[in-house]
Amino acid sequence: MPRRLALALVVLGTLAPSVARAGAWTQSEGRCYAKLGARAILGSGAYEATGLRDARQGIVDYFDLQLGLYAECGLHDRFTAVLYGAPFGYAVADDDTFYVGPIGGAVRFDPLGDGGPTRLAFQLDYAYAPPVGDVALFDEPGASPRVIYQPALENHYGELTVQLGHGFSLDPNVSGWVQGSVGARLNSADSMDPALTALASVGFTFYGWFQVEAYFPFYEPFGQDVTVTNIAGVGQTRYLGFGARVSAWMVEQLAIYAAIDGVFYASSNAATPAIQLGLESRFRAWGEPD
User: Which of 28, 119, 237, 252 is at 20 to 30 A from 222, Cα to Cα?
Assistant: First the structure.
């Protein structure tokens, strides 16, 4: 499969927690982080099931807007509960529909619990994507392989990941982190094989309020090859992606963020950037003040 460097939508099935020190870091008891954001894609190109970019310079014009929610709170210094989902989406590609993406939760466990700069964690996820908007808005007659735009697919999935992170300080005004995770995902949908997932990221905080992050998600299904081109990237897909995010903490509890996602290579996915805009918040929900 060719490894073509080009911008394209990265569809992860869940919203990645684009926050400094997510991943291997657990929240202290009562501390929480929350994010509300919108993700949009607009284009007319696709990566086919073979991994080749569509040679016709676009199959169908499409627009896809999705609202995403993410929150995590520390139940104990070693345990963090996570909730996330895409409760609302609207897609247009020949036809249009409202849809609902995966909604799920997770528990993150830190077995070391020493509060040091290097962290190890295990995370267990479960999510469900209901059959709301589970229709093909575009279906190219006679195409081989089949080419569709289907913004949602009913699916249950479970995932177990191992996460490792390290925080560091460069000077009194600049701190940073690196983290990586690898996991295995099981899907209930007949068209989706189990998959290997991974994520690596590096980020920096400047003067305690401005953050930048680069991240690299990976998704590789086990078993059969990708056989259907779903431009929305929902269903059987594969990719190695990249993304960049910036956050500005206007006050201690509230930030605005923006991100852009792309891929180094992809199969059965859109060939256009994914843009994200939203708000982040960090706060204490219960317990004693820090």
Answer: 119
Residue with tokens 């006050």: 251
Architecture of domain 31-284: Beta Barrel (2.40)
Q: Is the peptide bond before 145 cis (omega within 30 degrees of 0)?
A: yes
Encode pLDDT of 46-84 as tens digits: 999 999 988 666 689 999 999 999 999 999 999 999 999
C-alpha to C-alpha distance for 223 and 77, rounded to whole angstroms: 39
How far apart are alpha carbons 89 and 62 in whole angstroms?
A: 13
Q: Is 6 exposed, middle or buried (0-12, 13-18, 19+ CB in 10 A)?
A: middle
Taking residues 201-228, report their average pLDDT. 94
Quick one: average pLDDT of 186-192? Answer: 95
SS3 track for the chain? CCCCCECCCCCCCCCCCCCCCCCCCCCCECEEEEEEEEEEEEECCEECCCCCECCCCCCCCEEEEEEEEEEEEEEECCEEEEEEEEEEEEEEECEEEEECCCEEEEEEECCCCCCCCEEEEEEEEEEEECCCCCCCCEECCCCCCCEEECCCCCEEEEEEEEEEEEEEEEECCEEEEEEEEEEEEEECCCCCCCEEEEEEEEEEEECCCEEEEEEEEEEEECCCCCCCEECCCCCCCEEEEEEEEEEEEEECCEEEEEEEEEEEEEECEECCCEEEEEEEEEEECCCCCC
Structure pTM? 0.90
Of all residues in the chain, what percent carry a pLDDT higher than 90? 81
Give residue limits of the domains in the chain.
31-284
Selection from 42, 89, 46, 101 nearest residue 275 by Cα:
42
